[in-house]
Automatic annotation (TrEMBL):
The lineage of its organism: Eukaryota, Viridiplantae, Streptophyta, Embryophyta, Tracheophyta. GO terms for cellular component: endoplasmic reticulum membrane. The chain crosses the membrane at residues 16-38, 99-117. Belongs to the TMCO1 family. It is a multi-pass membrane protein. GO terms for biological process: endoplasmic reticulum calcium ion homeostasis. It comes from Jatropha curcas. It is found in: Endoplasmic reticulum membrane. Residues 43-70 form a coiled coil. This is Calcium load-activated calcium channel. Keywords: Calcium, Calcium channel, Calcium transport, Coiled coil, Endoplasmic reticulum, Ion channel, Ion transport, Membrane, Transmembrane, Transmembrane helix, Transport.
Amino acid sequence: MATPQFLSSFKYSDSLTVVGISMCTAVVCEAISWILIYRTNSYKSLKSSIDKASKKLENMKTETTKVTNKKSKTKKIDRVESSLKESSRDLSLFKFKSGAVVALVLFVVFGLLNSLFEGKVVAKLPFKPIGIVMKMSHRGLQGDDATDCSMAFLYFLCSISIRTNLQKFLGFSPPRGAAGAGLFPMPDPKTN
């Protein structure tokens, strides 16, 4: 019981608790994603096809500037682009099942943290945030000090940054060609 009392007397204990829980949640979410997605053969084949298509597309686009017969090259580029979009869409649908489980974990952890730190200032911002950011950072807190930071804002920032960097570190970041794609890709300007 000496440890919790020591931590509670520490100036940054609430902030470090939120950051620590965010780190643990990111590790758990990536473990779930690895079990459901990253270790499967279908994910590996989709990822390799996206990588190959994006490299091929990149090479074709650099060659198009050199070649005079651009009409046949643009047709080939369009075919590779559509193949890349289809593979990226398939990859997004494949990741969807893991996304539901991860969302459930994040929802439970956020509810737990919200009940633990309800109405408590967990950090001080080094600046006065602008309007909409202040509404997020000061959510659920009493008082008028705009530099007070709620658990929700700190957890949100930590979750985004830690999970993204953890994915890059573990090699689970999306393939290069799948960056702009997804379930709802941007419309193609050529068809509009």
